[in-house]
Design brief:
Largest sheet: 12 strands, mixed
Helix content: 25-40%
Order of helices and strands: HHHHHEEEEEEEEEHEEEEHE
CATH architecture of the largest domain: Roll
Distance between the termini: 140 Å
CATH class of the largest domain: Alpha Beta
Radius of gyration: 35 Å
CATH topology of the largest domain: Carbonic Anhydrase II
Structural class: alpha+beta
Number of strands: 14
């Protein structure tokens, strides 16, 4: 039998090709199948992605909660409990507000603080009437730990001269924060307005005790949230029904009556009160018997009382 002979060059080429195929196969195997370290990293990445997917609904819920209708104006943000804690008595009470936070310094050093006594008002016939255009709103009362607040739907407004202010919310104080010749009313309602320039107007209604229940107040009084942080069910109402028929008012330049006591607020306090029953007064005072800031110095400010024919 004749042997098949391979010359050295051919043998060398075959060896090179075989080596190339061998190392190529090894390289392909190593690169196609991940190493242990790569498997660990990939598993960690998948786990992290799963956690993010699980957290997304929670974040969406938190974002939705953060957009619940809360006071949009400065007073609203404070009334809803934002910022440094404060109270109506004790070491966090009104006499200490200016010491609780630098943000609250105006409560101590401000020159136009509210509330004030309105007994020194001068009669003026030159101040224009308030043009009130309040519509119906679905209102859910909120107990924020300082008072009872009702957020109002957009579209209700007041006009004073050339300026228009939108009603943002209303809230209650007992006793009334403003007084007339040293005499407070059992309860007052503040209606907080704001215009596009961020200017604030607060209208105030005094509630006077009588032997007859006020049906319009009772409509929302029946839904008073008792606990701090609780909400009442929505009630359809028009706040116009809680305004006095005669619209003479006191007016002056003052501040918010809660921290940070921001100044530059225009106040309109209706002279004539709205009558409510003693039982209705008790219903509120069971929750907040004293949520009124004490009277502040007038410091030379002019207070006017309108007199309309």
């Amino acid at each position: 039998m004749k042997r098949f002979a391979i010359d050295p060059i051919t043998a060398w080429l075959i060896a090179v090709v075989l080596s190339f195929l061998l190392f190529g196969s090894i390289y392909f195997f190593l690169t196609r199948f991940p190493t242990r370290e790569e498997l660990i990293l990939k598993a960690a990445a998948l786990w992290e992605e799963a956690e993010k997917t699980e957290e997304e609904p929670k974040k969406e819920e938190e974002q939705a909660a953060s957009h619940l209708p809360e006071e949009e104006s400065h007073e609203h943000k404070q009334e809803m409990g934002h910022g440094t804690p404060w109270a109506y008595d004790g070491p966090q009470g009104p006499s200490h507000w200016g010491e609780l936070s630098e943000e609250y310094l105006t409560c101590k050093k401000g020159q136009q603080q509210s509330p004030i006594d309105l007994g020194t008002a001068k009669i003026s016939t030159k101040i224009p009437e308030l043009k009130i255009s309040y519509g119906e709103s679905s209102v859910s009362l909120i107990n924020n730990g300082h008072t009872i607040v009702g957020n109002y739907s957009p579209g209700s407004k007041i006009e004073i001269g050339p300026k228009t202010f939108e009603l943002k919310h209303f809230l209650f104080h007992s006793p009334s924060e403003h007084q007339v010749s040293g005499a407070p009313y059992p309860i007052s309602m503040h209606l907080v307005h704001e215009n596009q320039a961020g200017e604030l107007v607060v209208a105030t209604v005094f509630f006077e005790e009588s032997n007859k229940q006020n049906p319009y107040l009772q409509q929302i009084w029946e839904e008073l949230p008792q606990r701090n942080g609780s909400h009442g069910p929505a009630v359809n109402m028009n706040i116009t029904s809680l305004l006095p028929e005669k619209r003479d008012f006191y007016t002056y330049q003052g501040s918010l009556t809660t921290p940070p006591c921001t100044e530059g607020v225009t106040w309109f306090i209706f002279k004539h009160s709205v009558r409510i029953s003693s039982n209705q007064i008790d219903q509120f005072q069971v929750i907040y018997a004293n949520n009124a800031r004490p009277i502040q110095p007038t410091k030379g400010r002019q207070v006017f009382l309108t007199k309309f024919q």
